[in-house]
Amino acid sequence: MHVEDVAAPQSMAEAIAFLKTHLNVVPWAGGTLLSTRNDRHDGDKPVSILDLDGIPELTVINRSDRYLELGSCVSLSAILSLPFILPLGPLRGAARLVGTATVRNLATIGGNLAARDSFMTCFAALACMDAAVEIRDAGGSRWISIHGLINDDDRPGFPATALLTRVRIPTLPWDSVAVCRLGELMRGEPCPATFVAAARFEKETISELRLLAAGLRIVRDRTLELSLVGKKLPLSARDIETAESSASYKAAQAGFGETRSRLYGHYVAVFLSGSQR
């Protein structure tokens, strides 16, 4: 990557003005993604670095009765330091998987979500939690579902000329959560794929269920989730076996490879078995 220009705006207005006048802009906050991999961003084309660290509003954390809002430059260590009264199980689990304490002090939630080559660790967790993100560009700002950052090929689809400025996370508690790495690092991945599952229960039935994994692509079988919602607990062995088979097949269709697809199905089965109550 050849750096042609560097800007350190002190406000969002200055940042957007820079976006309007420069091509191939690379936003920079913690810089952990760019500094720990062989970056392919724009090949040998000259790029302009946009350092977002000096914009105060991007480090703000706000809480309401139903949501938690994080500025895009909030570090992963700051997220892990939030009071445990906040039900952020999937996100906490994903943030803990990222590097060392030093890396988590630098890595930001915005950088983790806006990677363009692969879904990073926290994307799977926030997709599971149905988070929304605020996107700003020369045309203004808008809130979209985090699922809007996935393209039609189930790959990352973050807009090339936009900035992610805030993340809004529903804080309704989950009754059962699982977060773990999905196998070993594969060629072309900046980090291993991540498995995330979460469930809510009501009157000994599954009322909500999320099962997904994300790496170079994302896999989520909504048909499987809906087939299990409303089922009485404990689930039957047949239900769990069917879920394992369906999940493995869906992952294989998404290009996760034979070994990782079987592992995904296994993790789904283990989660469903452990969620009995």
Relevant terms:
four-stranded antiparallel β-sheet, Enolase-like, domain 1, alpha+beta, 277 residues, five-stranded antiparallel β-sheet, globular
List strands and helices in order, with pairings.
Elements: E1 2-7, H1 12-21, E2 25-28, H2 32-35, E3 46-51, E4 61-63, E5 67-71, H3 76-80, H4 89-96, H5 101-106, H6 109-113, H7 121-128, E6 132-137, E7 140-145, E8 163-170, E9 176-181, E10 194-202, E11 205-214, E12 218-220, H8 222-228, H9 237-253, H10 258-274
Parallel strand pairs: 1-3, 2-3
Antiparallel strand pairs: 4-5, 5-8, 6-7, 6-8, 9-10, 10-11, 11-12
Helix pairs in contact: 4-7, 9-10
Total of DSSP H or I helical runs spanning 4+ residues = 10
Shape: globular
Total domain modules? 3
Unreliably modeled segments: 35-39
Query: Biggest sheet, in brief?
Result: 5 strands, antiparallel
What is the helix content? 25-40%
- Please identify the top-level CATH class of the largest domain: Alpha Beta
The SSE string, one letter per element, is EHEHEEEHHHHHEEEEEEEHHH
Structural class: alpha+beta
Provide the residue-averaged pLDDT.
Answer: 91
Distance between the termini: 53 Å
Alpha carbon gyration radius: 19 Å
Beta-strand content estimate: 25-35%
CATH architecture of the largest domain: 2-Layer Sandwich
CATH topology call of the largest domain: Uridine Diphospho-n-acetylenolpyruvylglucosamine Reductase, domain 3
Strand adjacency order, main sheet: 4-5-8-6-7
Strand element count? 12
